[in-house]
Amino acid sequence: MELAYFLGLLAVILGAAKLLGAAAKAIGQPAVLGELVAGVLLSASLLNLVDANDKYLHLLAEIGVVILLFEIGLETDLARLLKVGAASAAVALVGVVLPFALGYAVCVLLGLETLAGVVAGATLTATSVGITARVLSDLGRLQDNESQIVLGAAVIDDVLGLVILAVVGGLAAGEGVTVLGVAQTTGLAFGFLIVTLLLGGAVVPPLVRRLSRSDLPGTITTIALVLAFGLAWLAAVAGSAMIIGAFAAGLLLRKTPQAHDIERRVGHLGHLFVPIFFVVTGAAVDVRVFDPTNPANHSTLAVGGLLIAAAIVGKFLAGYAPFWFRGKKAVIGVGMIPRGEVGLIFAQMGLVSGVFDARLFSAVTLMVMVTTFIAPPLLRLLLPPSGDEQNPKEE
User: Fold this and answer.
1) Is 314's pLDDT higher than 90?
2) CATH at 195
3) Which helix (H) or strand (E) holds 220?
4) pTM for this structure?
């Protein structure tokens, strides 16, 4: 791809994201919904301007989600997050087991092969923390107990998702799955987060305070990005998810006096990369599978419809798992619904490994699309904006 063309493409992506994001807010919806719609309009199935599989756009989108989770970490109170830890764990566990069981049952009842049912069920266990976190942030509701539970559950879900992905990947490749292998993957993922928060909590705040005394312009921003990108890289090396490392970096820097300044400066960078992530996610949608006039789509729509029902019911009921919590459980359930890019990773793995045929892949992709798009407006309906609703000013 030539640089001039790529720069023009970025101009179109950012312009469409800003325009449709503003339109979404004008009708009372979160800006992220407009950015997702922008991606659909620019996708290969409509205007054919954005290829969701383009490796360069994919890299920029991944940087976007890392920056987004870093920003969310900066806004998250670790003490409050730990306070609702038991509720988050309950939501995460039920939010994995129930959707998997329902998805597997749907596939078995439709006469699909066992392995196809396992992979499809695994796809339903995913949760896209990026989408929900962005909506909660836009509404100024990140500090609510319900939001903290959703964030905690989503982080646990990401760790469990890594384990499930490793297991399912082994099954799809015809390999055996051992208890030791599963335990190792789980231990690495959880261990990284615990060790990072314990060691980082003692080292990072005093180090940042010392380094921030430099009068070199941009020092504090560079320090923040080095920590965010560095921990994201270490998380990947340790067998965890990059976004968990970025989230941990935000949690650590929140304890520093420079936290507000870091949040403001990194937020400017987020204006560039984060919308690219949501546009590329929307561009993965193939609207042609919605065409009911095409007979080939009938079976896809039927299977997809049942998987959508299983996906929504499974995650929504997970919000009611912490029966002792007195808050709005419906908000928690809806916050866990979107599958986003995480669900697409599972679906793509099923297709590449040969476990999914074209029909089942399209049905699973349809499920990912619908769950991704319905969550933002539902959250907006259930959770009116607080007085702290974010409306970033361009500076």
Assistant:
1) yes
2) 1.20.1530.20
3) helix 219-237
4) 0.76
